[in-house]
Design goal:
The chain is built from 9 helices and 12 strands. By secondary structure, it is α/β, with parallel strands linked by helices.
């Protein structure tokens, strides 16, 4: 990574917001386009969640990201409702915000946005009365499994060009991008799906990261990432380092 040179490489996500920002950069810098995920809802997982969601005990549902919220509540196959007795944990403010769009109340937003932190928060909330805990997301990788902790996979992450995904991942992991640009909160979740597990966190923590919106800044800060946030109203850069995680 070389930030001393005038010619920098910015990694920017495909999409309208990223494209607008890229227009300002392409004349003076190199661009590396990051592919966007296309979540595909999985009917079997949604059926499993529907069966769990009518439980009458102290059941919890952990929503891992905004994509799983869309897969459950906005899949074009009818209305999905959680029983009133179900407690909800949202991994991050963006996920909680997406749940609110479907009139779902969130009981817990853990900090940091890690499964262990979510489990600790749930135990503090419910005490000895914790029932089954369902982890709803794309993958159960790095999720602890037990009798009460059950993963439900409700969508599959797909990319149009797998060759391009492999190429971009290798370049970013190898340090080819001088600055990672996140224009919206979904970009952060997209990045985590692209790199999976601990690797995504390692890259973010060891990169220069720029947020082009408050939502993207918040999503990155929840992960303890030092963020350079561009304030469009003041046209100024501000560097923040989260110390609360």
């Amino acid at each position: 990574m070389n930030t001393d040179s005038e010619l920098l490489t910015y990694a920017v996500f495909f999409g309208s917001v990223g494209s607008e920002f890229a227009e300002k950069l392409k004349a003076d810098h190199r661009l590396l386009w990051i592919p966007r995920v296309k979540p595909r809802p999985l009917g079997r997982g949604i059926i499993d969640l529907a069966q769990a969601a009518v439980s009458d005990d102290d059941t919890w549902v952990i929503f891992a990201d905004p994509f799983c919220v869309d897969a459950v509540f906005n899949n074009g196959k009818g209305t999905f409702e959680l029983a009133d007795c179900i407690h909800v944990c949202a991994m991050g403010k963006t996920t909680a915000s997406r749940l609110r769009e479907f009139h779902v109340h969130t009981d817990i937003i853990p900090r940091p946005t890690l499964v262990d932190a979510a489990l600790d928060s749930i135990i503090r909330f419910s005490g000895d009365n914790v029932g089954s805990i369902y982890y709803v997301g794309e993958s159960a990788d790095n999720v602890p499994l037990s009798g009460k902790f059950l993963p439900i996979r409700v969508y599959e992450a797909e990319f149009e060009d797998q060759f391009e995904v492999t190429r971009v991942k290798a370049l970013i992991a190898g340090g080819a991008a001088d600055i990672l640009v996140f224009s919206q909160a979904d970009d952060v979740h997209n990045f985590e799906l692209l790199f999976r597990g601990a690797l995504a966190g390692q890259i973010l923590l060891n990169s220069i990261v720029r947020a082009e919106s408050e939502a993207a800044f918040n999503a990155l800060s929840e992960r303890g990432v030092a963020v350079r946030y561009f304030d469009p109203e003041r046209y100024e850069d501000h560097t923040f380092t989260s110390t609360g995680l």
